[in-house]
Design brief:
Layout: H1 2-20, H2 23-44, H3 57-86, H4 89-95, H5 100-128, H6 137-164, H7 168-174, H8 176-180, H9 196-204, H10 207-219, H11 226-253
Helix pairs in contact: 1-5, 2-3, 2-5, 3-5, 3-6, 3-7, 3-10, 5-6, 6-7, 6-10, 6-11, 10-11
C-alpha cells in the first residue's frame, strides 16, 4: 500500500508538470468556459426566459457553465492518457513495477487541478457579470463537494476513453459527447421547454441532477433529493470507469 501511494503521488506530480508544459491546452481549458459564460449571458441571455423566479439569466446559467468546464477539461485528460499509451513510457513504468492505477490516477488528479482552476476563473467572471449566490457556509461546502465529485467522475470516464482510443486525436473525438452532454440538460434552459422526445433524456441524464443541485445550493433554493441523486450518479460513474480503466490498462499492456 505504501508503494502504491508513493507511485500514485509521483504520477500525480508528473501529470501536473506535463500540464504546465503545455500552455496552449491550459489556456484553452481556462479561456473556453469563460467565453461560453460571456456568450450565453450577453448574446443569448436576453432572449431566454427561464421562469421559476430566476431574476437574471446569469443566475440560472452559471451552474451549468461550471459543469460544462469539466466536460471540456476531460478531452485533455483522454488525449494525455492516449498519448502515454502510444509511446514507450508505459513500458518503462511497467519495468519499474508501477501499476496502471497509479498512472491513471496521476492523469485524473491533473485533470481535477485544471478543472478546479477553470471553475475558480468561471466563478470570478460570473461574479463580474452579475452572479450573486445566496448560499450559506453549508451551501458553499456542499456545492464544492458536488463539483469535486462530478469533476472526478468525468475525469475517470475520460481516462477510460483514452485507453479505448488508438491515438490522442481519436481520444479527443471520443470525449466529444462529454462536452456536449450539458446541452441536453437543464444547464441553459429548463427541461420543460424542450421537445417531448428530448424531455425524458434531459430530465434523467446524469448532469441534470448535478446542475439542479448546484443551482439550488448556490441560490439558496430548495433542492429536494437532487444532491443525493447527483452523488449516486457520480459514485456509479466513478466506480464503473475505474474498473473499466483498470481492465483496459491490463489488456493494453499485456
Amino acid at each position: 500500500m505504501a508503494d502504491a501511494l508513493t507511485h500514485a503521488a509521483t504520477m500525480v506530480g508528473r501529470s501536473v508538470r506535463l500540464s504546465s508544459r503545455n500552455p496552449d491546452a491550459v489556456i484553452t481549458a481556462l479561456a473556453l468556459p469563460v467565453l461560453l459564460m460571456l456568450v450565453f449571458v450577453y448574446l443569448f441571455g436576453g432572449a431566454i426566459d427561464t421562469g421559476g423566479g430566476y431574476g437574471r439569466y446569469v443566475d440560472y446559467v452559471a451552474p451549468g457553465v461550471l459543469v460544462l468546464c469539466a466536460g471540456f477539461g476531460a478531452g485533455t485528460t483522454a488525449m494525455s492518457v492516449a498519448d502515454d499509451m502510444k509511446g514507450a513510457v508505459i513500458d518503462r513504468f511497467r519495468s519499474l513495477d508501477v501499476g496502471g492505477t497509479a498512472v491513471l490516477a496521476g492523469h485524473v488528479a491533473a485533470s481535477v487541478v485544471r478543472n478546479l482552476a477553470a471553475t475558480v476563473l468561471v466563478f470570478g467572471v460570473a461574479f463580474a457579470v452579475g452572479f450573486r449566490p445566496e448560499a450559506g457556509v453549508g451551501g458553499w461546502l456542499a456545492s464544492a463537494g458536488l463539483l469535486l465529485a462530478v469533476i472526478t467522475a468525468i475525469s475517470w470516464v475520460a481516462a477510460a476513453f483514452g485507453l479505448l482510443a488508438d491515438s490522442p486525436e481519436a481520444a479527443g473525438g471520443f470525449t466529444f459527447f462529454l462536452a456536449f452532454l450539458p446541452y441536453p440538460s437543464s444547464a441553459f434552459v429548463p427541461v420543460d421547454s424542450m421537445p417531448g422526445w428530448l424531455h425524458g433524456f434531459a430530465e434523467h441524464q446524469p448532469l441534470t441532477p448535478v446542475i439542479e443541485s448546484l443551482r439550488g445550493l448556490l441560490l439558496g433554493r430548495p433542492v429536494g433529493g437532487s444532491p443525493w441523486e447527483a452523488l449516486a450518479w457520480c459514485a456509479g460513474l466513478t466506480a464503473v470507469s475505474v474498473a473499466a480503466a483498470a481492465a483496459l490498462f491490463r489488456r493494453r499492456t499485456s
